[in-house]
Amino acid sequence: MLLSDKFRGKNAAILVGFIIFILPLLYCFLIQPQQWQIETLLREYDTEEHNVRILEQFGRDYPDIDQRLSLLDKKTKELNRILPNEPDLENLLLYIEENMAKHRLKLLSLIPGKTIGKTSYREIKIEILLQGEYFDVMNFIKNLEDGPRLISMQGISLIEREGQTEVKLEITVFSLK
User: Which positions, given as ranges, span the membrane (predicted)?
Assistant: First the structure.
C-alpha cells in the first residue's frame, strides 16, 4: 500500500507540475493571441461602424448625389480657374490690359517681381503703376480683385497729380505647382 500511495503521490506531483507548466503555455500560445485578434477585430468594427455613420449622415445631408457631384464639379472648375496649375501670366496681363482700357487708365509701368515657391503653390509678385481718374482706378482695382485669378493686394499707394490719380499696386498672383 505504501508503494501505491508513493506512486500516486508521484503521479499527482507530476500531474500538478505538468499543469503548472502547460497552463502558461496554453495562455501564451492559444488564449492571448485570440484576445489580441478579438481586440483587433473590435477596433476594426468600431472604425467600420464610424465610417457607416459618416456615410449615413452624408446620405441624409445630400439625398441627391448627382446634384451634389455637379456642385462639387462646378466648384472644382472655379478653383482651377482662379488657381491654375501654371502661372499663366499672359492671360492675366491681357485681363489687366483689357480692364485698364475699359476704365480709361494709362499704364506707367508693370514690373514682374520674384516668384516664390511654397510647398504646394507659387506666389508671383507684380508691381503695377497706372494713372487715371480716381473712380476709374477704384473700379479697376475692384475688377482686378473679382477677376479670373486669385490675387492678393499687398500694397496700394495713391497720389493725386494734376487732377489724375496715380496708383502703385503691389499684387501677388498664385498658382499651384
Answer: 12-32
H/E/C letters for each residue in the chain? CHHHHHHHHHHHHHHHHHHHHHHHHHHHHHHHHHHHHHHHHHHHHHHHHHHHHHHHHHHHHCCCHHHHHHHHHHHHHHHHHHCCCCCCHHHHHHHHHHHHHHCCCEEEEEEEEEEEECCCEEEEEEEEEEEECHHHHHHHHHHHHCCCCCEEEEEEEEEEECCEEEEEEEEEEEEEC
pLDDT (tens digit per residue) in 119-155: 888 999 999 999 999 999 999 999 999 988 889 999 9
- Does the model's pTM come out above 0.85? no
Minimal CA–CA distance to 157: which of 126, 128, 125? Answer: 128
The Cα–Cα gap between 171 and 176 comes to 17
CATH class of the domain defined by 89-176: alpha beta
| 131 φ, ψ (degrees, to nearest 5) | -140, 145
Interhelix angle 134-145/89-102, nearest 10 degrees: 150
pLDDT at 1: 46
